[in-house]
TrEMBL record:
Annotated GO MF terms: ATP binding; D-alanine-D-alanine ligase activity; metal ion binding
InterPro entries with a match to the protein in the record: ATP-grasp, ATP_grasp_subdomain_1, Dala_Dala_lig_C
Entry's family note: Belongs to the D-alanine--D-alanine ligase family.
UniProt KW keywords: ATP-binding, Ligase, Nucleotide-binding
Pfam families in the record: Dala_Dala_lig_C
Native organism: Agathobacter rectalis
Name by which UniProt lists this protein: ATP-grasp domain-containing protein
Domain spans labelled ATP-grasp: 111-314
Length: 323
């Protein structure tokens, strides 16, 4: 039987529990990381769990498959670290390859692929400490300012929505002062939609899209709302068959171009006035927890339980292990 290493922030390490330090961390542990650990145990997999990537670095030869759900490891460009280590040791892993992960973690480059595929995309510019925003607005507002790299919603709140270019520059500078590069998007007044995808031996499995609303200004959804530690966010399964068909078409086209990748969620904003879906970003390490949108959509798309979804993903990884 193949031996699996499961890496997660709150995965038990050397037999000891990792204690969450905040309500958001507790949510992640109890609805995401620990349930996956329970599934590995419940179904008799040969596995080790750890919250320390040194377990991989020091003991890589003991494992046949790695599954890391770490989004951040505390250093720049950490998103591709575990997968790169696996590639170095020719060790199979679950997820996206480092080059694909790098593409999607860069919100600017991922938008360029969407444009190339002729998927509607709002205007945008990027800025860094070396190359700050120009004094003259490149397009009309309102504007939305957020970190350019990374898939989490940390740092996103109502102050990210800026009516004027001067306000946009000030907000961007607040990120740049902390060495966080930014992307400034043309704000689309609409609703956020997510389209979860699982790879398959033939065509990808694309779940029914879900959408989310917020009581924040501009329908902005914060990191705390996504972790259910702050109220005001609601999630629904989309029942609009016409819109679902368009979103699935775009998502299938995009997913086929971002291979190799085992699973992903592609996000859009559907403009209220026109009904046009604009590509927003893509995530290859979204929340796979019991209360996440990814799971909610697939439970409406042929899967009968959370366990079944997680075991499907594990099987994608095990299929890469040489017999």
């Amino acid at each position: 039987m193949a031996k699996i290493l499961f890496l997660a922030q709150f995965a038990p390490t050397n037999g000891k529990k990792v204690i969450p330090l905040s309500s958001e961390e507790k949510f992640y542990a109890e609805t995401y990381h620990l349930p996956i650990c329970d599934i590995l145990e419940k179904y008799g997999y040969d596995y080790v769990t750890s919250s320390d990537v040194k377990e991989l670095i020091q003991n890589y030869a003991q494992y046949d498959l790695v599954w890391s759900v770490y989004n951040r490891l505390g250093f720049r460009n950490c998103e591709v670290f575990v997968q790169s280590i696996c590639e170095y040791y020719n060790l199979p892993y679950i997820g996206a390859t480092p080059n694909v992960r790098a593409l999607v973690e860069d919100k600017s480059m991922s938008k360029q692929l969407a444009e190339h595929l002729q998927i509607p995309t709002a205007k945008w510019v990027v800025a860094s400490s070396k190359y700050p925003l120009s004094a003259v607005a490149p397009f009309n507002g309102p504007y939305f300012v957020k970190p350019r790299f990374g898939s989490a919603s940390i740092g996103i709140d109502e102050s990210c929505l800026c009516e004027t270019w001067q306000h946009t520059i000030e907000k961007a500078n607040s990120f740049l002062q902390n060495d966080i590069e930014v992307i400034v998007e043309e704000y689309i007044n609409g609703i956020y939609y997510g389209v979860p995808i699982l790879n398959n031996t033939e065509i990808p499995l694309i779940a029914v899209p879900h959408f989310q609303t917020s009581d924040k200004i501009g329908n902005i959804i914060t990191n705390s709302q996504k972790r259910f530690t702050e109220g005001g966010m609601k999630r629904f399964i989309c029942q609009n068959e016409g819109l679902n068909k368009i979103l699935k078409y775009y998502s299938n086209m995009y997913f086929m171009q971002m291979q190799p990748c085992d699973y992903a969620r592609i996000d859009y904003i559907v403009e209220k006035d026109t009904g046009i879906p604009y590509f927003l970003e893509v995530n290859t390490l979204m929340n796979l927890g019991q209360k996440g949108g990814f799971v909610a959509s697939f439970l409406e798309s042929g899967f009968n339980s959370y366990d079944e979804i997680i075991r499907y993903i594990i099987d994608l990884g095990l299929s890469k292990v040489k017999k």
